[in-house]
Write a structure and sequence with these properties.
Elements (H helix, E strand, L loop, with lengths): L10 H10 L1 H4 L8 E5 L7 H8 L5 E8 L6 E9 L2 H11 L3 E2 L2 E2 L1 E4 L14 E5 L7 H8 L5 E8 L6 E9 L2 H11 L12 E4 L3 H18 L31
Antiparallel strand pairs: 1-3, 1-6, 2-3, 4-5, 7-9, 7-10, 8-9
Length: about 250
């Protein structure tokens, strides 16, 4: 299979992948000792990245993030220093640094930057699934992050084609969390739009969403901001109209 060009990586996507990695989470206590490095040249390896940042302090871990399909560099990674002072020193020195035809972006990698992805559970909702992707391929995409107990792609009831949405259920919520952090906003090889990965709605959230949708539909048909009353057949008010007629004699 021919390898496709990697799509540009957004910072949100990069941060999600970084925070899902074992190196990031090991010993991460919320201090700014971890640096996010974006726009790395394609050929930069873990070792090259380490050598690049070694002059600034003691490096505890160093990782260039790779594409899950092709194994190629996704052109971003992170370096974890022993102290926040060393990390800040490296960020000040290397942010904006020119490396071949790229300008590096170097900043603290804070876990608090990740956006909300729903109520934690072991069930994950995926939107933007390519039409040609099979259930087996979807399962292979998510299987590195935990034990999958259920995987399905939603089909149109008439055409039986994929609706571009699906669900993956893991054995535990932490496994689902790892998958969301790694794959939310991920651009699959050969595609241009990222997939959206979040926790599936709970039953309570689904009921609340249906209630909001019903209210919106009712408001749509009322010029006064509220729905007209709907009577059951037996409760429709009965109106009796009386007619009066006056008869005048002919002259």
């Amino acid at each position: 299979m021919a390898e496709s060009m990697m799509a540009p990586v957004s910072e949100a996507e990069a941060m999600a992948a970084i925070q899902s990695s074992e190196e990031y989470n090991r010993g991460n206590n919320g201090t700014n000792t971890n640096l996010f490095i974006n726009y790395l040249p394609q050929e930069v390896t873990d070792e090259a990245l380490r050598n690049m940042f070694l002059p600034f302090g003691d490096i505890e871990s160093c990782k260039v993030m790779l594409d899950l399909t092709t194994g190629q560099s996704r052109c971003f990674g992170f370096v974890k220093f022993r102290t926040s002072e060393q990390a800040q020193f490296a960020a000040n020195a290397m942010n904006g640094h020119k490396l071949k035809n790229k300008t590096l972006v170097v900043k603290p990698a804070n876990a608090t930057n990740q956006s909300s992805v729903g109520t934690p559970s072991n069930n994950v909702y995926i939107k933007g699934i390519p039409q040609v992707m099979t259930t087996e391929q979807l399962q292979n995409l998510f299987s590195p992050y935990g034990t999958i107990t259920e995987c399905k792609i939603l089909l149109d009831p008439v055409s039986h084609f994929s609706r571009g949405m699906g669900f993956v259920r893991f054995n535990s919520p932490p496994e689902a969390d790892n998958a969301i952090k790694a794959l939310n906003n991920y651009v699959l090889a050969g595609t241009v739009k990222p997939i959206i990965v979040k926790y599936a709605d709970t039953e309570e959230e689904r009921k609340e969403r249906r209630s909001r949708q019903l209210k919106r539909r009712q408001l749509r048909y009322s010029p006064y901001g509220m729905a007209p009353p709907i009577y059951p057949p037996a409760a429709v008010p009965q109106v009796t109209i009386l007619y009066s007629m006056t008869i005048h004699p002919l002259p």
